[in-house]
Amino acid sequence: MVTIALSDVGVSLGRRPVVHDVNAVLAPGAVVGIVGPNGAGKSTLLRATLGLVASTGSICVDDVPLARMARGVAARTLAYLPQGQTLHWPLTVERLVTLGRLPHLAPMSRLSDADAAAVERALERAGVADLRERIATDLSGGERARVLLARALAVEAPGLLADEPLASLDPGHQIDVMDLLRAEARGGALVVTVLHDLTMAARYCDRVLLMDAGTIVADGVPLDVLTPERLRAVYGITATIERFGETVTIVPTGRAY
Ligand SMILES: Nc1ncnc2c1ncn2[C@@H]1O[C@H](COP(=O)(O)OP(=O)(O)OP(=O)(O)O)[C@@H](O)[C@H]1O
């Protein structure tokens, strides 16, 4: 289990402040969605939380300042699925997913049976076991996205930070991935995921952080956060929000000018 505490987090890129005044405690056992318009700072916040970009304020992972954690420990604790990653090396899917075990390996050591079993579980859970012999650079965008998710799952970290895991996926695979993220959380993991699909955020997230202009402007259960007024103010859209029993649908209907 892992808890991430963000206090007054800020990030500047190229001298531009792109994230500021972010405060949140992210506890295990939940799917936390980060939503907000393009350029709001979602990916940058995720990258700062992983120590991939320099930040101000404080980021603690289980009460340990991220800056003081050894890289290997951080990499075993927080798995990362980056946004739209391009693949350059013609590796087989199985080898690519095996790279997810790197944080667990001592230098020059071989994969253990436990590593191989973790890779197998990740291939199965991401639904890409049948692609294992394929060259990853030859895959379609959606297939590649699921393979990269499998690589992140292979880490078997207590925290999973996923940046737009639904991009390129067809509706069935979107549901599969969100079901999988929810299952991870129900198993005790902390799952933090950037999403653009507000219906998926409302249906699958236990908590939603709505970002605008570099900071969190609302934080809570999805339907408390994703109100028509906020969607108008933050995204500049009108939207219908409907509930059918347990099922929620948020459909953007137009621009609100
Ligand atoms: N290297 C950089 N130098 C300067 N500004 C940058 C740099 N990288 C990103 N930015 C800016 O930081 C802001 C936040 O970018 P970020 O990628 O975090 O947004 P996002 O909310 O994830 O957006 P999207 O939904 O489009 O993926 C944007 O305005 C972006 O142009």
TrEMBL record:
GO terms for molecular function: ATP binding; ATP hydrolysis activity. Residues 4-238 form the ABC transporter domain. Pfam families: ABC_tran. SMART domains: AAA. It comes from the Bacteria. The keyword Transport applies. Keywords: ATP-binding, Nucleotide-binding, Translocase, Transport. InterPro entries: AAA+_ATPase, ABC_transporter-like_ATP-bd, ABC_transporter-like_CS, P-loop_NTPase. Part of the ABC transporter complex HmuTUV involved in hemin import. Responsible for energy coupling to the transport system. Belongs to the ABC transporter superfamily. This is ABC transporter. It comes from Sphingomonas panacis.
